[in-house]
Design brief:
The chain has 119 residues and is mostly helical. The chain is 66% helix and 0% strand. It contains seven helices and no strands. α1 (2-18) packs antiparallel against α2 (23-35).
């Protein structure tokens, strides 16, 4: 699996270096670093990503995925609640998004599924 993460990091970082305003690339890098256990490298992107939620089109749902990849459950749920408050249509993917597998056993996740109408 490590080789897959390394290849994915290489492709994503190569693209992002050529397109630094493409924040989905930055989101992808942060998630991949988190999932591959390189949390310190993922964390360095968080300030820019958090700033991007204010005015650059970085969604609360995407930030929840990043924090889930970092195994930061409370932060992930805080952003999921923000997505709910914003009525994010991305929440329709909540029940099938594998990036949230870590959160599924948590009662807060089940409550959110119920409120969104997916349970």
């Amino acid at each position: 699996m490590r080789a897959v993460y390394e290849l994915t990091l290489w492709i994503t970082s190569s693209f992002f270096l050529r397109n630094p305003e493409f924040h989905h690339g930055l989101l992808g890098l942060a998630r991949i670093y988190g999932l591959s256990g390189r949390k310190s490298e993922a964390i360095r992107f968080l300030p820019e990503l958090r700033e991007g939620t204010k005015h650059r089109g970085v969604s609360a749902f995407d930030m929840a995925l990043v924090y889930a990849a970092l195994e930061e459950r409370d932060e992930a749920f805080a952003f999921l609640e923000r997505a709910y408050a914003e009525r994010s249509e991305q929440l329709t993917h909540l029940n099938v998004e594998p990036g949230f597998d870590l959160l599924r056993p948590d009662p807060r996740f089940q409550d959110l599924l119920r409120r969104v109408g997916l349970q």
